[in-house]
2,5-dichloro-2,5-cyclohexadiene-1,4-diol dehydrogenase-like (Branchiostoma floridae), 133 residues
Amino acid sequence: MDVNVKGVWLCLKYEIAQMLQQEPVVSDPARWANKPDLCRFRGVRGSIVNASSRAGLVSVPNISASYCVSKFAIMGLTQTAAMEYAKEGICVNAVCPAITATPMTYRTLEKAPPGFEKTLALTHPAGLIAAPK
C-alpha cells in the first residue's frame, strides 16, 4: 500500500502543485478564439499518467487482495484528480496493463490451483499473458 497508493498520492500531490504554478499552453489559440460559446478552453498545464492494472478495474480471482485494493485505489485517485483538475488544464489518466509475465506473476502462479494460468490468461484481452519488453 505504501508504494502503490501512498506513492501515487504523493506524486499526484507534488505534480499537481507544480503544474498549477505553470502557465497554461494553448496549442492553437486561434482555433478557440472565435468559439467562446462552444468551448472555454483554458490551455494545458500538463498531463499525469499513473500506473495501475487491470486488477484495478475488474476483480481477478486468486490475486492478492491487497494488490487489487491498491490498484482500485489508484483508479479512484486518478479519476478524482482528473475531475478536480480538468478545468485547470491538468489531464490525469492511468494505464492498466493486463497480466504480464513478471517475477510477481510467477510467485502468484506457484501458489495458485492447477490450471489457473489459463484462467488468468483469459482475463487478458488477447487471451494470453503478456511478455515484458
Observations:
- The chain has a mean pLDDT of 86.
- The two ends are 26 Å apart (CA to CA).
- Residues 99-133 form one domain.
